[in-house]
Amino acid sequence: MRRLTLAAFAAxxxxxxxxxxxxxxxxxxxxxxxxxxxxxxxxxxxxFARRVNERLAGRAELHVYGASQLGGDDAMLQRLRxxxxxxxxxxxxMSSMVDAFGLFEMPYLVRDREHMKRIEEAVVxxxxxxxxxxxxxxxxxxxxxxxxxxxxxxxxIHGPEDLSGIKLRTPRGxxxxxxxxxxxxxxxxMPFSEVFVALQTGVMDGQENxxxxxxxxxxxxxxxxxxxxxxxxxxxxxxxxxxRWERHPPDIRAEVEAIARDMQTFVYETAARMDGELLAELExxxxxxxxxxxxxxxxxxxxxxxEFARTVEEGRSxxxxxxxxATPETGP
Length: 332
Prior knowledge:
Elements: H1 2-16, E1 27-32, H2 40-55, E2 60-65, H3 73-82, E3 87-88, H4 94-97, H5 113-134, E4 137-147, E5 149-152, E6 167-170, H6 174-182, E7 186-189, H7 195-201, E8 206-209, H8 211-216, E9 225-228, E10 233-241, H9 242-246, H10 250-283, E11 288-291, H11 294-300, H12 302-311, H13 315-324
Parallel strand pairs: 1-2, 1-3, 6-7, 6-8, 9-11
Antiparallel strand pairs: 3-10, 4-10, 5-8, 5-9
């Protein structure tokens, strides 16, 4: 039975990565992500595929595999390096692959999307993208996962003291675990595909995610409280494995990369719209929703900043550059 299961799985991966026997003159591209149907990941990845397939009709075709069909983020990153998947959209997990990406695990670092655009220019392309390439990955564009909030089944979270003893699911990222340890919770990394059942059965008391992930995965059905902490803004990185990507025709690569970069405006506008709409939807449910005190969370998490600055190569410089980008540069 196991041999049959593995064979079926291998066949599915082969189909996803261009082995489906399509037009031999068309470059088959695959993109995997963990977002549920209706999530920001789902909406933006499908729009990306629509634009690629329209512009490159007859030359390339992009297929999207969402909802962890090709595994969790860690499995898809491994496939990128092995060359069996073209693209994925990792977020937090990048900090486990390249420690400098832990910059985006620092609480309240990114103030808004305009600030994120300036961080992208000041930090992502000159500092982080080269480190990703050294690890075997190539970042094609910066999109969004979103501003993260805490849900749980035990009590409202107003400040760090309310997290004491709460079993909290986090993504796989060492700095997110360190953050919630500093805040007094009991964090446990877990693939997103397992979160609903873990919350439903009480294995976990709560989790933290952008509203789009909360609603699309129906986590509000198994959580009683939503606390609007906005503790971390998570960018998402359209990422490929450097080796496989270089095997595609240069003109195809250039056009796909350009489309991925051009998608950012759509991503940010869609994310902002969804934030407002989804909060209104959640307010109409039985969830109890409260505003948290960000200043108390920020003060309690300062040791995480200090550890990042001390242990990551040029960590202090990365923090300083990101913070400096909060204020737009002015001309002479």
